[in-house]
Write a structure and sequence with these properties.
The protein is of the alpha+beta class. The chain is 37% helix and 37% strand.
Length: 107
Amino acid sequence: MLPNMNPKMMKMAMKKMGIKQEDIEANEVIIKSTNGDLVIKNPNVVKITMGGEDSFQITGTVKEMSFKEEDIKTVAEQAGVSEDKAKEALDETQGDLAEAIMKLTQA
């Protein structure tokens, strides 16, 4: 936002320019990439529509997950658990595959 500008006036100005802004309620945002996932906890998500295209502004606490989909599958197969449980274990062990498998098989 611009300093010293009333948010209501800013919204009206954006509307005149054809820019629509919409808050989206979210608990978590996950951005998947080839190098792992970015998990954004307690996000504030705003959808901005301009010129027929949507873009999203996301703020929150970012946690980088460095494990890949193949890591999740490996842990799930080796420990005999679901991929969701494997993800949780990898998250708790900060991506350490061996430790995640041991944690799941000792339970």
